[in-house]
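User: Run a structure prediction on this.
Assistant: Running it now.
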Amino acid sequence: MQHLIKYNTINCDKNIKPRSKKVLTMEKRFINPMKVIVTTVMLSFLPACSSVTLPSATLHTSNTTDINSYKYLIGAGDNVNIFVWRNPEVSGNFVVRPDGMITTSLVEDIPVSGKTPTELARQIEETLSTYLRDPVVTVTVNNFVGPFSEQIRVIGEATQPQAISYKKNMTLLDVMISVGGLTEFADGNDAVLVRLESGSQVEYSISIEDLIKSGDISANVDMLPGDIIIIPEAWF
C-alpha cells in the first residue's frame, strides 16, 4: 500500500509542468516593483501615525472654590431617593446612570448629575407639575459617589491609589489616611497637588512625608473637590 501511494504521488508530480524561465522572469519583473510600491506606501503612513496625538482631557471646574462654599453634587452611581408628597406611586429610589440621568415612572431621562439635592427637587417639581397639581418633592442621596469633577484622585506611590469622594473640611492628612499612606518607594516630599483654578491647572508642592512620617502638622493643607495628588517614586 505504501508503494502504491508513493507511485501515485510520483505520477501526480509528473503531470505538473514546470514554469518556463521566461514566465518566472516576467513574474519577478511584476512582483518586485509591486513590493517596492507597497513598502513605500506603508512607510509613508508611519510618520503620520506616530505624530498623531490625542487632545488633552476636558477640564471640569468644581463649583467649590473654598472649603466654606462646599455643597454636595449628585453623580453617577449615587442612589437618589425621591419622595413626592401624597404621591407614593411616583416616589422611589433611583440609581443615577453613567450618563448622569434617572428614569421615573412618569418622566424618562431626568438629568441629575452635577445638581444639589435641593436643585434636583425643584427641577422635579417643575417637571411633575405637568402631570400633578402642586407637587412637593424631597430628594435625599445615599451611596455617595459624586461627579468626577468633585472627587479627589491620588495616583503614584500611595499604598492604595484611588478616587475619593470629597467630604467637607477634608485635609491632606484625611486623604492620605484613606489611601493607606505612602509606599516604601515613595518620595512624599516631592509630591504635587494639581488644582483647577480659573480654568487652568495649577501645581502646588506638598510635603506628604514630613506630614505622615515626621508628624509635621504644618504640612497639612485643605483639600478641595477635584484635586489631584501625584506621588512620585524615589530615585534611591
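DSSP finds five helices and ten strands in the chain.
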